[in-house]
Amino acid sequence: MDEDTVIVLLGASGDLAAKKLYPALFNLYRRDMLSPGTRIIGIDPTPMSHEEFTDHMKKSIGVHETDLAKKCARFCEICHYITLKTDEGDKSFEELRDLMESFQNKEKQQHRLFYMALPPKIYVSVSEQLKRCCKDEKTVSRVIVEKPFGRDLETSIDLHKKLAPNWSEDEIFRIDHYLGKEMVKNMIVLRFGNPMFGAVWDCNHIDNIQISMTEAIGTERRGGYFDDVGVIRDIMQNHLTQILALITMERPGSFSAEDLRQEKARVLRLVPPVDIKNTILGQYSKSADGQKPGYKDDDTVPKDSCCATFCTTVAYVKNARWEGVPFILKAGKGMETSSPPLLNPFRLPALAESKTEIRIQLKDTTAAMLYNTMHNELIIRIQPQEGVRLKMNAKAPGLELKTIATELDLTYKGIVDNPDLPEAYEALLRDAIEGDLSLSVREDELEASWRIWTPLLKKIEKDEGVELEEYAYGSEGPEKLKEFIGGYQYLGEKQ
After folding, report:
1. Is the preceding peptide bond at 384 cis, omega within 30 degrees of 0?
2. Domains located in the chain, CATH noted
3. Which spans are transmembrane here (predicted)?
């Protein structure tokens, strides 16, 4: 990359910048993936000197090794800070413009990337100020917005209409960080780079698919925020729906950003709205031992809150490939996430932590001569311990014809020595810097996603036929869950 690039982080003192953006930018820097002319500008209402800002960044990056510490010090030399209050008119944005222009090489076109790590309610006003003061025909400008993109279909459409006059669709990067995760990106290669999977990737061979994201922790320290969002907006409408699209879409004409996003949008339009009758909603209470607090024990959460911290529902894709296949979508906080001993004794032990995975169960064998065979199952672990496992049947060693369960295992940490896998935000930032929209959610794709979930959200808000099941912190979820999932013939790992 030869371009001079200015990366502007609006919300530079916030949690997102500290936990994700500064470490990601430093990792790109140490991997030599930022051009020599790159400059980073932090923007925030909090007054900070340059030294205070860089100290804040160093603590966020958390580098201790001598060599990396030296590189981190050099990284901080390309970073700058401006105290800017977004509600005080254009003056501060003009100061930002002047600083960016001072870095500009007259012989090169400057690329400007504005990352709005800000509350969504001020996206529009800030984007308008950036347009007036910091965007011109002499530069290439792009803006990144974080989820949530609205609260439902109507507000999402409204947000797009208000951004559109200032930013074209190819200048807007709507970030869903799950699209940057290694195993989510691997879905394209797994599906379309392996004919053995492509041959069985349909309703004739697949019985059901579960896409789940369970978190061992609750909403500690962010209950007030979560209560206004809920598990459907926080996880299911975006993360799980994006994974659903990657699993079910047809092979794109090419792997360009537009062709990929076109196929995702096309298949999501074939998913009817999920039905409240096929949905379980839950909210966690204190743990069985009383050590972990319940959701409503958080002082920031209303005591009469009806916010769902758990949801499982079933979606269908209405086309010939997927006719009748249930997609069981599950997300929950404060849940037990550890797994039983695995068939492969050399894999790292499973931990009780957040877990995201896709489980694709194939139909039973019809060979009458074989008894006690299990489902073939393809398991794609997104986090932790990224990898792919294929459960299959084999003959037990010996003279008799008996079957045993075995598996093929592609766990990243098992096949690569000390893998230095990039974090999701590294991939997302790198693509945004290069103008690659592959990992960005397009407007029509977003609209199709909201159409799936908005009717359910409306019913929940109006309390129409909604029952909130209680489950203990650290449990496997509501009591009805096992029977519900079993009704779709799904067999989980513990069965």
Report:
1. yes
2. 4-146 (3.40.50.720), 179-486 (3.30.360.10)
3. none
Residue with tokens 């947000």: 159
Distance CA 486, CA 471 (A): 19
Count of beta carbons in the 10 Å neighbourhood of residue 181: 23
Convert the pLDDT of each residue in 413-465 to its tens digit: 656 555 677 889 999 999 999 999 999 999 999 999 999 999 999 999 887 77
Output the pLDDT for position 343: 40
Residue pointed to by tokens 């090419």: 254
Dist CA 144 CA 121 (whole Å): 15
Reading the block at residue 378, the tokens are 């393809």
Query: What percentage of the chain has pLDDT greater than the value 70?
Result: 91
1: closest CA among 34, 23, 49?
A: 34
Write out the H or E segment, with its range, that includes residue 80: strand 79-83
pLDDT category, 341, cuts 50, 70, 90? very low
Please list, residue by residue across 381-406, b when 16 or more beta carbons sit within 10 angstroms of its beta carbon and e when fewer do. bbbbbbbbbbbbeeeeeeeeeeeeeb
Q: What is the pLDDT of residue 106?
A: 77
Six token digits for residue 137: 């025909």
Complete DSSP assignment for 34-70: S-TT-EEEEEESS---HHHHHHHHHHHHT--SHHHHH
What is the distance between the alpha carbons of residues 470 and 468, in angstroms, rounded to a whole number?
7
The contacts of residue 80 (CB under 8 Å, 6+ apart) are: 39, 40, 41, 42, 50, 99
> Helix, strand, coil shares of the chain as percentages rounded to 5?
35, 20, 40
Average pLDDT (347-363) is: 70
Which is catalytic among the residues 56, 80, 177, 239? 239
Helix (H, G, I), strand (E, B) or coil at 426: helix
DSSP reduced 3-state for 142: strand
375 is catalytic: no
* Rounded Cα distance, 239 and 251, in Å: 21
User: Could you tell me the pTM of the whole model?
Assistant: 0.90
Cis peptide before 148 (omega within 30 of 0): yes
Q: Give the pLDDT confidence of 247-299 residue by residue, as tens digits.
A: 999 999 998 999 999 999 999 999 999 999 999 999 999 998 888 999 999 88
User: Tokens at residue 37, please?
Assistant: 């002319």
Minimal CA–CA distance to 230: which of 316, 340, 293, 148? 148
